[in-house]
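Quick illustration for those who missed Monday's session on complexes.
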Amino acid sequence: MKTIQEYTVIKKSETLILEASSWEEIIVSVRKNYVKVLWVIDKKVRPLISLDSLDKIIEIDGGEQCKTLCGFEQLVRLLADMELDRTGHIVAVGGGSISDLVGYVASVYLRGISFSIVPSTFLSLIDASMGGKNGINYATKKNQLGTLHQPSSIYYLPGLIAHLPIDEMADGFAESIKYGLILDQRLFEKLEARSLEKIIGNKEDLNDIINSCIIHKSNIVKEDPFEYDRRLILNYGHTIGHAVESIYGLSHGKSVGLGMYFAAKLSEIFYGLDLNLAEKIRQILPAYNLPIRLEVFSAQAIFQKIVSDKKRENEDIHFVMLEKIGRARIEKISLTCLKEYLNTAEREKWMC
Ligand SMILES: NC(=O)c1ccc[n+]([C@@H]2O[C@H](COP(=O)([O-])OP(=O)(O)OC[C@H]3O[C@@H](n4cnc5c(N)ncnc54)[C@H](O)[C@@H]3O)[C@@H](O)[C@H]2O)c1
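Prediction with nicotinamide-adenine-dinucleotide bound:
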């Protein structure tokens, strides 16, 4: 075949991550850049901020229930009623569910308008707000519809996170343990030496951890925005984690914690290591209110869920392994091999 033309599209999309000292400072910053703005606010966050000077707002229930076609349509209708054009802007104030929904709406409305995020959960601050992934759920599948669309700004307002229930904090900490395991031994050791309660009670430690996590996630996203290779390591613990989450209804962070433990056991076998990796994870999880056991563990059910997972590639699956604390590698393993490991885990009661 004859090539007529080959071209590359370079899309300039910069994200600024800013720490705000007050809610008013965020409003001023948004107003400086945009005239017409829709503020989409999680109802549970609403009492923590003042809406007085905001022109157009909508309050919605945060959590998975907002990531639906109905939630999507509600926002699109509002934008159309406002006659928001391509110079308009949307601000998501809430956790990962709100920013996933808003990011998706912003990416498709008028073929894409800009948006910003004010994360109100620890998880969204150190993970979900960065990287441009968005999405809504469809039928029984999570994030079945989605795009990659980078936010213009992410505003960290410490006061919002301070009101988060401890269980929600614990969920986010599963991701910070993950960053330590895959990228940063110092971070892991810092977390290992402390506990959820101790870190929450120490502003300096909390800020240090937040900063490390933000730097790790944003660096990886910068290196591989479209998740072709390097970014895949962020899925450490997520292959099993997602299956556990959907089968047993455990929260995302708790499921990922168990997934990280399984992946460490697998890494030890796969690389023939004797580094006590899995044992270290078994010890750190309870210190962050994350479980190390399930009441039931069905290798068959988890395997079936993974087979129907979108990351499947023919008969192989990308699986993130640990070579040591602070270094991860992506390996392709066959589904047959994974099935054997899951059967071993059930037989030897790794997780129950
Ligand atoms: N796009 C990504 O890269 C990415 C990454 C990780 C997770 N996610 C998505 O993020 C979602 C989970 O997000 P999440 O864990 O941030 O929480 P969430 O948005 O699901 O909210 C969880 C609960 O906390 C409440 N809440 C939010 N902020 C609060 C506050 N400051 N004080 C008290 N309550 C508050 C919400 O109303 C909700 O009831 C999932 O849908 C997941 O798929 C996306």
